[in-house]
């Protein structure tokens, strides 16, 4: 869907969206339409018990005296409570209300709201990005035989009509660049595993060179020479080769160490010899969710020309059972030199990340490290689908990421770490084992495992996004499916704390 901004004006026909505040308080355009139609808006709201609650919508077909095909009333809630995140959710609600409209162009009117602290240009831009994010569909494999034309949204353009439309357009530009990164991540997370394996993923990454990103790919031969045996052990049961991808964006002239962002990229996770139950295993195509986020983030930074030096790392493998697969009880020597007893081959993501963490630190000496992974089912038990788990060795970093999550709606919840948890991964025959004792604290022991591969003094955060990468229901800014949770969060963190200020 295309987004454009225009001066305040109503079209002669088509679909128009106008705001209604809590208590059925009409915005300026709504008042004008109500008056010209002889009070038909007020009558419709009363008949439908429409109160103007935030994200509540009411569609009026062929409103009297307007010439429009339909008029959508968008509940905005109380003006004083509206912030940028609320305006984004209103944009998402707008898309939900117009998705089935037959008009190719829809006009969204954003009026000034007395009592609202968000400037109108910012409000319009955030509503636009909310609508754009919510409009995403992954329909690459749908054919006309299975999808009727009437079921596919017909809206091709959303015209945001508002005062200060030039400022709104300017504010929207970097948001749109980030949205492109979000869509890339959602595409990658949605692809079936027979299409997107480690090699194919690395080839998709190489396309980012046209954005000015330097892309390097480590083959199995190169990784073996580096001693990345923990990562290679995960992929050794698959007929498809493993890869490590490095994405470099040097947008700052400052000669400072980069931020390292690392993503788990298990393109399909059968569990290996410790095979998963059949029910739900199809979801494991998105066990590369962290790598997808890193890829989309790097694309977003390049598209908006971020003034920051950031290096993304993807550990790409497929975890399959076979005669060559890693066995429970095997011991591997990681790139760091530390040895790992593999108790459960389905706890494979941490093995991949361990070697990539070591490689990133030895090669690039980053100032800060953030990793993302669909790492544990235990985080879903702890936090459900509402928050991702946050683990960190640095209070300042943890606070900054939590704030960025609150601002973007990609919420984090920090969980504890400590020596008592670390003892749970002590091995009798190696330096550590890859799972803890018993079923308790599964997400924490996974984080403790990763912490052993972070050099002392380096600020590090681990985001367990297993519960937030995919949704089985429509969300305010994402339809059912891949969410790309983490792209906007990390972009906001980089904007506020990493970018070189002009």
From TrEMBL:
It catalyses: Release of an N-terminal amino acid, preferentially leucine, but not glutamic or aspartic acids; Release of an N-terminal amino acid, Xaa-|-Yaa-, in which Xaa is preferably Leu, but may be other amino acids including Pro although not Arg or Lys, and Yaa may be Pro. Amino acid amides and methyl esters are also readily hydrolyzed, but rates on arylamides are exceedingly low. Its EC number is 3.4.11.1, 3.4.11.10. Binds 2 manganese ions per subunit. Its cofactor is Mn(2+). It holds the Pfam family Peptidase_M17_N. SUPFAM superfamilies: Macro domain-like, Zn-dependent exopeptidases. It comes from the Bacteria. Mn(2+) 2 binds at residues 264, 269, 287, 348. CDD domains: Peptidase_M17. Residues 344-351 form the Cytosol aminopeptidase domain. One of its GO terms (biological process) is proteolysis. It is found in: Cytoplasm. The active site is at residues 276, 350. InterPro entries: Leucine_aapep/pepB, Macro_dom-like, Peptidase_M17_C, Peptidase_M17_leu_NH2_pept, Peptidase_M17_N. One of its GO terms (cellular component) is cytoplasm. Mn(2+) 1 binds at residues 269, 346, 348. One of its GO terms (molecular function) is manganese ion binding. Keywords: Aminopeptidase, Cytoplasm, Hydrolase, Manganese, Metal-binding, Protease. Presumably involved in the processing and regular turnover of intracellular proteins. Catalyzes the removal of unsubstituted N-terminal amino acids from various peptides. NCBIfam families: PRK00913.1-2, PRK00913.1-4, PRK00913.2-2, PRK00913.2-4. PANTHER family: CYTOSOL AMINOPEPTIDASE, LEUCINE AMINOPEPTIDASE-RELATED. Belongs to the peptidase M17 family. This is Probable cytosol aminopeptidase. It comes from Haematospirillum jordaniae. The gene is pepA.
């Amino acid at each position: 869907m295309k987004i454009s901004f225009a001066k305040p004006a109503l079209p002669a026909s088509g679909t128009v969206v106008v705001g209604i505040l809590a208590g059925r308080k009409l915005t300026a355009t709504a008042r004008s339409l109500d008056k010209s139609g002889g009070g038909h808006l007020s009558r419709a709201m009363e008949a439908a018990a429409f109160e103007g609650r935030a994200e509540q919508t009411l569609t009026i077909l062929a409103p009297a005296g307007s010439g429009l095909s339909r008029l959508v009333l968008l509940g905005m809630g109380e003006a004083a409570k509206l912030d940028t995140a609320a305006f984004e959710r209103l944009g998402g609600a707008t898309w939900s209300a117009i998705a089935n409209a037959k008009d190719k162009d829809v006009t969204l009117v954003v009026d000034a709201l007395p009592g609202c602290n968000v400037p109108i240009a910012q409000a319009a831009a955030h509503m636009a990005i909310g609508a754009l994010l919510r409009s995403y569909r992954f329909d690459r494999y749908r054919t006309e035989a299975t999808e009727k034309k009437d079921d596919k949204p017909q809206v091709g353009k959303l015209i945001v009509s508002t005062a200060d439309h030039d400022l709104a357009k300017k504010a929207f530009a970097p948001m749109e660049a980030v949205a492109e990164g979000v869509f890339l991540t959602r595409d990658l997370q949605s692809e079936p595993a027979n299409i997107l394996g480690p090699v194919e993923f690395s080839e998709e990454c190489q396309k980012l060179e046209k954005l000015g990103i330097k892309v390097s790919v480590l083959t199995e031969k190169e990784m073996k020479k580096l001693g990345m045996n923990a990562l290679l052990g995960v992929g050794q049961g698959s007929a498809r080769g493993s890869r490590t991808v490095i994405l470099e964006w040097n947008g700052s002239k400052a000669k400072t160490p980069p931020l390292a962002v690392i993503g788990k990229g298990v393109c399909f996770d059968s569990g290996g010899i410790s095979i998963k139950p059949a029910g739900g295993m199809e979801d494991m195509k998105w066990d590369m969710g962290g790598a997808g986020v890193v890829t989309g983030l790097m694309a977003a930074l390049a598209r908006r020309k971020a003034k920051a030096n950031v290096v993304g790392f993807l550990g790409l493998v497929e975890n399959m059972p076979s005669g060559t697969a890693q066995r429970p009880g095997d011991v591997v020597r990681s790139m760091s030199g530390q040895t790992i007893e593999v108790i459960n081959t389905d706890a494979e993501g941490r093995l991949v990340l361990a070697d990539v963490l070591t490689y990133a630190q030895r090669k690039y000496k980053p100032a800060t490290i953030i990793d993302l992974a669909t790492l544990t089912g235990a985080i879903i038990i702890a936090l459900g689908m509402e928050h991702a788990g946050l683990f960190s060795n640095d209070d300042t970093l943890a606070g900054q990421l939590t704030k960025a999550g609150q601002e973007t709606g990609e919420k984090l919840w920090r969980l504890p770490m400590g020596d008592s948890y670390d003892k749970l991964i002590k091995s009798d025959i190696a330096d550590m084992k890859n799972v803890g004792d018993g079923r308790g604290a599964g997400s924490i022991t996974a984080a403790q495992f990763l912490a052993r591969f972070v050099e002392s003094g380096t600020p590090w955060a681990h985001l367990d996004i297993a519960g937030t990468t995919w949704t089985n229901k429509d969300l305010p800014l994402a339809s059912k499916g891949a969410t790309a949770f983490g792209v906007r969060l990390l972009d906001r963190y980089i904007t506020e704390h990493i970018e070189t200020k002009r």
